[in-house]
Amino acid sequence: VSASADQVQLSARSTNAAAQSQAIQAQQAGRAATAAAAANSGPLVGPALYEGLKTGFVDGYMNPKEILERCQQLADKYPNLVEIVESEQQTSGYDGKNAEVRGPGKQYYLRVGPKTEDRDKKLGVFQFAAPHAREWVNPLIMLELTEQLAANYDPSSTNPAVQANTQLLDKLDVFIAPMTNPDGTNYSMFDEKMWRKNRAPYGESVGVDVNRNYPTGWVAGDPSEITFGGSGPLSEKETQHIVGVLDRHPNIRFICDWHSYAEEIRKPWGVSDQDMPLYNAMHTRMTDAIASVRDTKYGNVFSEVIEGTSDDYFYHERKTYSMLVETAKAFQPKESEALKVTEECTRGARELLRFAAEHQEQQGLAAANPPASIPRIPG
Ligand SMILES: [Zn+2]
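# zinc ion complex -> structure
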């Protein structure tokens, strides 16, 4: 090998090295630019998300009458942002010993956001609480979320957290139903604390498990059971009301049904391979947001109950990204603890909205992709 050939090789090597070093520099510059862009305009992360937000509006347990009054106050205080939408159908009625609240209960939900003409074209997110009467914390989460969204809506604010909150309501069509089983909840609050079902009369027995009354995998069971599924799929006013929200608003793509208790976020049964990455990302974001208050670690699990529950119906038959959260360590934690759970889970509920808004930016109103048929139920 001649000296000159060696030199050529050497110079080729050094050209390679120079090119490599240039590429690395470009990569680093690119990364720095991306990081800078994220800091300037990307989604907020960590504590900055909540800095300066007005929070802590809810200060204790509320019964269904108080919850409705609170919703009316919010609608009065924020007439451009909070609307109460009432269902024509009332419930069969509370029949317990508190005469003041006896009789049919009102069914309603809140639509939150600027009342623009294009709101039906935005991606809809529906969150609702308390289909099971004894699970008292979750209406508080729904009310706190509603009030935070409205109180922190300010297009002129320079606070990044307020700007982000404002953008959520500008981008999304937000639906929140804080009280979806008023009769049963009254019965749990005034008569029998551990009451779970609604108060519809069925022969000798009373009540249907509202979260066993959806069509997917529906079974009747016995009226005396705590999980009685009703006389048929959607036989109950409470489930008709929830499904009615989706019928009226076909732009809804994300649904969260808030329950207690287990400190878990549950995917529906039989999530497709195609949807699994989205579910995992979404639930990690929500559990991280919940943990940001005091490090409470919510599990990220699959639903094991497939007998007429909301999440399976909404995923498999309505092609929405549906889920069920089990909050807290008890059905009715002491009030100070209930308020902590409210603080945590309001962040989880807000994170779902953030995730949904990003989904819309990337995929518009693309629906969920459940498998062609529901995978066989084990056992
Ligand atoms: Zn429940």
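# post-check
The two ends are 75 Å apart (CA to CA).
DSSP finds nine helices and ten strands in the chain.
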